[in-house]
Amino acid sequence: MSRPFWLYIIVFIVCQLAGGAVAIAANLLGSGGTTGALVMSLVTANVLSVAAFLMLRPRELTWQSFADGWRQPLLRHTLAFVAAAPAVIVAVNIVQEVFLSWLPDWVGEHDFRAIMHNPLGLFTVCVLGPVAEELLFRGGVQGALQQRLGAASPWAVVWASAIFALVHANPAQMPAALLLGLLLGAAYRHTCSLAAPMAMHIVNNSLAALLALLAPPQTTLTAALGGTTTALLVAAGCLICTFLCLRDKFSIYNKV
After folding, report:
1. What pTM did the predictor assign?
2. For the chain, what is the domain count?
3. Residue 215 domain-assigned (yes or no)
4. Contact yes or no for 87/166 (Cβ under 8 A)
């Protein structure tokens, strides 16, 4: 019998609270300054999340299933989803800049940039965080919902994505987290492997990190790419790569 989906949500919240407690303790002790405390908080929360998931891991989620995502015949599908991720990220950023710029951002850009200039903080945001969140939200929450609602039901992806967006607890991030979560969930549902969603999540966070490291403050992704037209061309290029990865699936010769 699979574990209930809400158990993984509770695990995530408890791990975040533990990370927050570490940050408070570091500040009280004057250890590492504000940036050091934030990095310690992130590392603690994500390491605990990974450890907790490994203890609660569903039996059907194996290391073999992860490795299968990097082998044929699933490899092309994994690469197709990874190539599609930047296109979705660009599209979401354009929509957010045009229609949702009024949403409050509760994560200070100054703090985020400071974390990106800390090597451990950079690794945590770009790699450890995505791995931990995919384990809990795709492997845990979505996996449990698929067991409950049926593997063919799209509602497991929808509900897991909505929960994923809500736990970000930052209005400015929620729309992007929801749409990206839907793509991550679709990748997991389609491939039955965490390889694709983990790689896609790493790509997403790495783009945010590069923007913070290389672009001036307050620079949007669209502006960093040279404007809306260039951003759309980049998105189109990514979608072409997705098509090329799956070209055999769409080949007319396969339909004869």
Report:
1. 0.93
2. 1
3. yes
4. no
Type of residue at 180: L
Q: Would residue 249 count as lying in a domain?
A: yes
Whether 185 and 160 have beta carbons less than 8 Å apart is answered as: yes
HEC assignment per residue over 149-194: HCCCCCHHHHHHHHHHHHCCCCCCCHHHHHHHHHHHHHHHHHHCCC
Q: Tens-digit pLDDT profile for the chain (256 aa)?
A: 578 999 999 999 999 999 999 999 988 887 768 889 999 999 999 999 999 999 999 888 889 999 999 998 899 999 999 999 999 999 999 988 888 889 988 877 888 999 999 999 999 999 999 999 999 999 999 999 999 999 888 999 999 999 999 999 899 899 999 999 999 999 999 999 999 999 999 999 999 999 999 999 889 999 999 999 999 999 999 999 999 988 766 554 444 4
Q: Which of 162, 129, 161 lies closest to 49 in space, CA to CA? A: 129
Angle between helical axes of 195-214 and 174-191 (0-180°, round to 10): 150
Q: Tokens 């290029």 — which residue? A: 237
The closest of 49, 238, 224 to 140, measured between CA atoms, is: 49
Residue range of the domain that includes 132: 63-255
- State the first-to-last Cα distance of the chain, in angstroms, to the nearest integer: 44
DSSP, collapsed to helix, strand or coil, labels residue 226 as coil
Residue 136 lies in a domain: yes
Q: Are 22 and 40 in contact (CB under 8 A)?
A: yes
Q: Say which amino acid occupies 70.
A: W
Does residue 10 belong to any structural domain of this protein?
A: no
Query: Does residue 87 come out as left (phi exceeding 0), alpha (psi in the -120 to 50 range) or beta?
Result: alpha
